[in-house]
Amino acid sequence: MEKNMDLKKIEQKVYRESIRDGLAEIFWGITFIAATGYFLIRGFSIFMILLVLVFVPIMRKKLKKRYVYPRTGYAKLREDDLKEIAGILLYMAVIVAVMATAFFFACDDPTNPDLWLKWSPAFFGAMLTGAYLDIGRRSGNRWYYGITVLALVSGVILSVPEFASPKTGIIVYLPFMGTVLMLTGSVLFRRFLKNNPVAEEASNDV
Amino acid sequence: MSKEEDLQPLADIDRIIHEPARLSIMAHLYVVESADFLFLIRQTGLTSGNLSSHLSKLEVASYVKIKKEFVEKKPHTMLSLTEEGRTAFREYVERMKHIFEDLAE
């Protein structure tokens, strides 16, 4: 039985349980790889990415019902969705403001779209950094800080060089991070299935 | 301070929550909005019979709400703390903190 009655630790443990199946990483990986199509394929509509963004959470929910909940049970976490979305939008706005300020002081034309495109890997890196710092804090799992560092460092590294096309950095960054996330998620998911057989207790309900 | 006054904070402890298994159940339900039976088994380490028995006591005390439903023709039980249960748990935690603080002095 639970010996440690530290509520913060219990909350972190519950949150960690909810994400340890790796499905979130797999689906973020798919989204990142799909997003590459927007920069790589002529005529690739942004609606395709939106479709992926709608389709992916539905698939994730179905897989959770099929593979995760019969093994670990289900808990609805206490989350304020609106607050969370507002937080993400505010964080995005801060990154854009920081980048705009940096461009204003460092470049002749901060409104140049090519400049923004060139630095988009750093932008995505900063977005992933925010997301994984939050996941790391909420789960108490330091492993997530590794992804944070990788996302930010690779984003900056791919933004600095002058490639022939300003798209090159983002065309390399998105599939790279997408593959890292998908591989990480696949390993986590496989380990989750192996370590958590379907519970017999599920049939002995209260 | 008289002996009765010394023991007063201990006497005020909510004994329904104070039992270790129920305390674990309450703590796990406190940090989520709701959870199912299997989740609580996994998290608390209690057997299904034990968990069921403690949940019944918490339900009688109006601390826990038990909602039974069928998912794909199988029984599925969702559990959550009532407002009364949340308040009682918060008060219990505060009371225990005070008791330990006083002990330290």
In CATH, the topology of chain B is named Arc Repressor Mutant, subunit A
Most strands sheet of chain A: none
Report the span from N to C terminus of chain A.
Answer: 19 Å
Secondary-structure element order of chain B, N to C: HHHEHHEEH
Strand content of chain A: under 5%
Regions of chain A with pLDDT < 50 over 5+ consecutive residues? Answer: none
Secondary-structure topology with pairs:
The complex is a heterodimer of chains A (206) and B (105).
Chain A: H1 7-19, H2 23-40, H3 46-72, E1 75-77, H4 81-106, H5 113-118, H6 120-139, H7 143-159, H8 168-195
Chain B: H1 3-11, H2 15-18, H3 20-30, E1 32-36, H4 37-44, H5 48-60, E2 64-71, E3 74-81, H6 83-104
Can you tell me about this structure?
In chain A, 75% of the residues lie in helices and 1% in strands. By secondary structure, chain A is mainly alpha-helical. Chain A has one domain. With 105 residues, chain B is α+β, with helices and mostly antiparallel strands. Chain B has a single domain (3-104), classed as Arc Repressor Mutant, subunit A. Helices cover 64% and strands 20% of the residues of chain B. In chain B, strand 2 and strand 3 (74-81) form a beta hairpin. The two termini of chain B are 14 Å apart. In chain B, 32% of the residues are buried. The model of chain B has no long low-confidence stretch (mean pLDDT 89). At the A-B interface, helix 1, helix 3 and strand 1 of A face helix 3, strand 1, helix 4, helix 5 and strand 3 of B. Strand 1 (75-77) of chain A pairs antiparallel with strand 1 (32-36) of chain B.
